[in-house]
Amino acid sequence: MADTSDNTGFCRDCLAAARGGRRCGKCGSPRLLKHPELFQLTVAHVDCDAFYASVEKRDNPELADKPVIIGGGKRGVVSTACYIARIRGVKSAMPMFKALEACPDAVVVKPDMEKYARVGRQIRAMMQDLTPLVQPLSIDEAFLDLAGTERLHHDPPARTLAKFAKRVEAEVGITISVGLSYCKFLAKVASDMNKPRGFSVIGEAEAVEFLKPKPVTLIWGVGKAFAETLARDGITEIGQLQQMQENDLMRRYGVMGRRLYSLSRGIDDRRVHLNDEAKSVSAETTFFDDHASLEALTPPLRALAEQVSKRLKKTATAGRTVVLKLKTADFKLRTRNRRLESPTQLADRIFREGLSLLDKELDGTKFRLIGIGVTDLCDEDQADPPDLVDPDASRRAAAEAAMDKLRDKFGVKSIETGYTFGRGKRGHTP
Ligand code: TTP
Ligand code: MG
């Protein structure tokens, strides 16, 4: 068992027990970790620092002290920037021209998704050496529950995680930040608190006080639009939510009200669980009356393609194969696949492929169900490259992005395409 005899903390560099003072008595490092609940907490969130940029710096030491921006792919936006570039104001999702205005001497590197995925997998495998309970959230972050691992590692979770951070630095060559708490919500908040190379702890006893002055946007699921709704009701700080009754919050905000009630008080019962990774994304509908004509089948197909696209965009994924599903009036199932040249998350492309598959099935058969989906899922960064062969496709992709923006702003129903609005009034062959 590790020496945690004074039970206050340890040095993140040499792992010696901390004995008071601001520096480690053994190695002199200021990176001491102390907290009254340090050795009881088991839920962690681990997130790599400036992930893509860190990997590129690792692979090209000349970049070490330079501001580095990863991006400039199809959308001309910043994927991420190293911490040197961030000090100069560069942020993820910023248009590249703005980023270069803020930081003209930045080195811009094109993303190499395969490489980042490889590094992400390597780190994930190392996480699985710590505990089987690893729940990845994205390419560079995951929740870990280390309850019950003390006997295996001969260390409490806090020390196991500090060792892990050192191991990632030594073996992978990039840095990570760790948040340790008693629940997922606060573990994730903590990992973001002193990046890069951070390790923050939020204990149960301090949770309510800690949350009180924080903005409501810290709460999971409170995005810009919902924060504006809350602000209109005069609520901007979590402390205000702490004063409100659960039924009042639920009456005002529905299901989200319950979440506001619990999370504002640091109550979060969600467990760390293994992801059942989605293998496909699809949507289908069963008709009231059976349909045989393209005219009748086109509007639902378009609406379903939009649902699929919405889910892909939300999860930052894309699919390379489009699947059309039909069920005949006598319950026979037909599925038809088409592999695309590049993965897609666009409703327009999914719809058009689906429509051309559908076209071949129309032989007078009546259908009771239609579904559309994508499989062979991958990260969205590989999706929908500007189409040089078909300039119309790029135009439609831009139109779709504009519609998505409007939908976000005004709600889904505000924008309807010709296909879902009327009954397939526009031409239908792709
Ligand atoms: P993040 O973990 O959000 O960001 P980061 O790792 O670059 O920086 P940090 O965690 O230290 O704040 O995202 C992980 C990777 O995902 C990031 O390196 C690049 C990619 N990404 C995008 O491509 N676009 C985006 O808008 C964001 C936020 C991330
Ligand atoms: Mg990160």
Task: List the SSEs and their pairings.
Elements: E1 9-11, E2 32-34, E3 43-48, H1 51-59, E4 68-71, E5 78-81, H2 83-87, H3 96-102, E6 107-109, H4 113-128, E7 134-138, E8 141-145, H5 150-153, H6 157-171, E9 176-181, H7 184-191, E10 199-201, H8 207-211, H9 224-232, H10 238-242, H11 246-253, H12 255-264, E11 280-291, H13 294-314, E12 317-328, E13 333-344, H14 347-359, E14 367-379, H15 391-410, H16 418-421
Parallel strand pairs: 4-6, 9-10
Antiparallel strand pairs: 1-2, 3-8, 3-9, 4-5, 7-8, 11-14, 12-13, 12-14
Helix pairs in contact: 11-12, 13-14
Task: Please provide a brief summary of the model.
This protein has 430 residues and is of the alpha+beta class.
Descriptive account of the structure:
There is one protein chain. Helices cover 37% and strands 21% of the residues. It is α+β, with helices and mostly antiparallel strands and 430 residues long. The chain folds into 4 domains: 1-34, no CATH class; 39-201, Reverse transcriptase/Diguanylate cyclase domain (Alpha-Beta Plaits, 2-Layer Sandwich); 208-264, 5' to 3' exonuclease, C-terminal subdomain (DNA polymerase, domain 1, Orthogonal Bundle); 280-423, Dna Ligase, domain 1 (2-Layer Sandwich). Strands 7-8-3-9-10 form a 5-stranded mixed sheet. A 4-stranded antiparallel sheet has the order 11-14-12-13, with helices on one face. The longest helix is centred in the C-terminal third of the chain and has 21 residues, at 294-314. The protein starts with 8 loop residues before the first strand and ends in a 9-residue tail after the last helix. Mean pLDDT is 89; it is low at 1-6 and 421-430. The structure holds thymidine-5'-triphosphate and magnesium ion.
